[in-house]
Amino acid sequence: MNKSKDNFFIGRLKSIKYAAKGGWLLLTTEHSIIVQTIIAIIMTLVGFMFNISTTEWLFQIIAIALVITAESANTAIEYLCDFIHPEYNKKIGFIKDISAGIPFIAAIFAVIIGLIIYIPKFM
């Protein structure tokens, strides 16, 4: 194997290591991510209880992933804003409010998906 391929492979391994570390930090330190993960676990159990279809599973998993990803992006943006401008700033506040809207919108669509999947199960 040549050196550039070795460097490429080592670089990818390092990227995976950093990504896993970031995921672990989110799951163990960020309350919003912990809450979303608990909700994801509950909804997964509910999916098994109601024996949802493969298609319903796909939509549920995508909705869960969307919410957790959006919450993670919001967390990163808020930390970046706080690092750049620690004291209150109107423009930074505006950015953080917009950032908070990301998981809010994702959660609205996740709830809609959940209602579409589970309301018929109760009828």
UniProtKB/TrEMBL annotation:
Bound cofactor: record note: Mn(2+), Zn(2+), Cd(2+) and Co(2+) support activity to lesser extents.
Signal peptide (from-to): none
MF GO annotations: ATP binding; kinase activity; metal ion binding
InterPro entries, A to Z: DAGK, DAGK_sf, UDPK
Cell location: Cell membrane
Family statement: Belongs to the bacterial diacylglycerol kinase family.
Entry protein name: Diacylglycerol kinase
Lineage: Bacteria, Pseudomonadati, Bacteroidota, Flavobacteriia, Flavobacteriales
